[in-house]
Amino acid sequence: MSKISNGDISVYYETEGTGPAVVLQHGWSGSLECWREFGYTSALRDAYRLVLIDARGHGRSGVPSNKDDYDTERMATDVICVLDALNIGRAHFVGYSMGGWIGFHLGSLAPNRFISMVLGGAHPYEEDLSFIRDLAAQGGAAILGFWDSAFSDEIRQQLTAHPSLPLTAAVRNDRPDLSPSLGRMRMPLLIYAGDQDFRYEGVKRCGLELPNAEFLSIPGLEHLLGFTRSDLVIPHVRSFLDRHSAEAVRGKARA
């Protein structure tokens, strides 16, 4: 359990497992504990060194008082700072929802730092966040009601007590179009969403437009279930990581 500083913001992270590094970045209103809650860490730690990061304003990371400090690009630099602190030159990246949006920023800012990326429930195109802003304004209890009963009591208590500023600041602006920078993302990509996800069409578009991407549609799942139904997600994530870890090893051997 460690913290590093990115400017004057503390970023909390944990590591577990051994092997090639895999960053796990949670979604809006969550924390790194969500990866444990739904079995991702137990399914991956036997073969990978997992780097779990609390986004700023979430979990045990610092809570900036300035709304501008919650820009996604700054959250992306937090990931790079953690990798630097751990002396990890290149890693895989797995992010869901806001974590996937952070991944699109990372793919543009520092593409050479990532062996591959798994981006779920997120796309790089312009998006109106007004309905999420309305939800954020109501606080953690309202957000919990929106997510229904998917979480354990511990996660439910954490969400109910979540500071309001990070939730509102992170979605205060609509998301801009990042697609002009997609050409920099030359690493292998797994882009996925449930086919009932409100972002499905944008995710599908991205997955089909990028020549180095695999697009995965998961039948019957809306946005939250695209993360919590990990029994349907993890086999695809594990297969993708195993395949591209092996390819990275072969590439080093040829070099």
The CATH homologous superfamily corresponds to Alpha/Beta hydrolase fold, catalytic domain
Shape: globular
Major sheet: 8 strands, mixed
**SSE order:** EEEHHEHEHEHHHHEHEHH
Rg over alpha carbons: 17 Å
Through-space gap between termini: 35 Å
The fraction of residues in strands falls at 15-25%
Mean pLDDT across the residues is 92
Instruction: Give the strand order of the largest sheet, numbering strands 1, 2, ... along the chain.
Output: 1-2-4-3-5-6-7-8
Q: Which regions have little confidence, pLDDT < 50, spanning 5+ residues?
A: none
Structural class based on helices, strands and sheet pairing: alpha/beta
Number of domains: 1
Please, could you describe this protein's structure?
With 255 residues, the protein is an alpha/beta fold. Helix content is 42%, strand content 19%. The chain has one domain (2-254): Alpha/Beta hydrolase fold, catalytic domain (Rossmann fold), CATH 3.40.50.1820. The chain has an 8-stranded mixed beta sheet with strand order 1-2-4-3-5-6-7-8, sandwiched between helices.
